[in-house]
Amino acid sequence: MRRSVLLLALLLAACGGGSTRGNAVTGPGVVPAGGGVADAGLPQAADAGAIDAGPGAPDAGADAGADGGVAAGCEGLVPADAGTPFFTDLDVGDPSQICSPAPPDGTGTVALRVGTFDANGIHRTTWSFFRARDGSVVSSHAYPAGSGPTALIAQPDGFTGVELLAADPPRIDLHAIDAQGHDLATTSADVDALVPDPAGGAVGFALTRARAAFTLRYERFDAKGRLAASAVAATGSTAAPDQAVPWVAGVSTSGDTLLVFGPVDQPCSAVWLDRAGAAVSAVFRPSPCRIRALLPLADGSLAVDAVDQDQNASIAAAAVPRSARFGSAPAWLAQARLRELFLLPGGRGNALRRQGAGAGVELFSPAGARCGEFAPPELGSGPFVLGRDGTLVEQDLGGQACTFRWYPALFR
Q1: Distance (Å) of CA 342 to CA 43, 77, 298, 303, 384
Q2: What is the C-alpha to C-alpha distance for residues 297 and 319, in angstroms, rounded to an integer?
Q3: What is the mean pLDDT of the chain?
Q4: Model-level pTM greater than 0.90?
Q5: Other CB atoms closer than 10 Å to residue 83's CB: what's the count?
Q6: At 102, which helix (H) or strand (E)?
Q7: Cα distance between residue 8 and residue 5, in whole Å
Q8: What distance in Å separates the CA atoms of residue 367 and residue 350, rounded to the nearest whole number?
Q9: Residue 139, SS3?
Q10: Sorting pLDDT into bands at 50, 70 and 90, what band is 364?
Q11: What is the mean pLDDT of residues 94-99?
Q12: What is the side-by-side order of every strand in the sheet holding 137-142?
């Protein structure tokens, strides 16, 4: 249900040395992407809606921050100039190829993936690593067929690679990858998905069963993929031993985790957990339940990205850490239909792009003031990711969709 860290389909081929000519970079391949939504239980009654959190923050104006800031919290958020982007084409000429970017890490390493499939559906994955500031190729790692991480979670220094294993129940391997792209160690985990921690590391939940009874165990991993905390987060029962117990989770900037879970034939439940996995709120019945992701905001809350009965996605509510209720989404996000939503480095604000052709990147202060909108001249309609160092990486969906461009430290 939820895989905030959306674990993707993947693979790749070839790799070899790379070179930079001007701002065009040539070299090995790479990829990340994915999606999914799921229902954490039955939707609540119509009168169990979100609580009104009061009026939203004032609009700081379309050009706020561009001239040094006209509202508190907007200073320096809107770039004055995008500069010249670097770009690379990782097309390997295989019709099965899938390409995608990972968010750059805190040191400014750009990680790109190319994946290919053979006639039996076995994948090959290659991750290529570039230095954001000058476009130089750092390294490339081609994994053996059928192995390797298909998604990378950016860390302050390096990445956590996530490899889905063919196991029942589902399991993953966590790869500790440094900022030079070296795969240093692998840790096996019983969780089936991970969500990033804004401070570094990641959180997942392991489901165990005893007939109709189930247990969800909180597992927190550090930035090297090592288990840092483990605790029972929730228990319950299902109508049948094999009934699904979907979950979705999000980690706030304060480090608290919100878990929303529940058998598909029951109303969903939610609880806040601290970094040790101990409950710091009562278990409560949130609304809505059809949640795609719980996204961290700079004010410390989580945006509830949910779908309605017609499968239309929007920001439907907000969750304040340790509160046993969902509140209204902040005015600047309420019912927003977004393509991307990211924290800015250091939690200085949020960046988003709305659905619709030609939409630029909007910048908001932690208080929700709209500081401005920025559209780099070459920013197209492809998906983008924003790194911990502020680098924006866009995927060009034209051709084979394996061309990428990036703007170093654009939102640092």
Answers
A1: 27, 13, 9, 11, 10
A2: 10
A3: 84
A4: no
A5: 13
A6: strand 98-102
A7: 9
A8: 10
A9: strand
A10: very high
A11: 95
A12: 98-102, 109-117, 123-131, 137-142
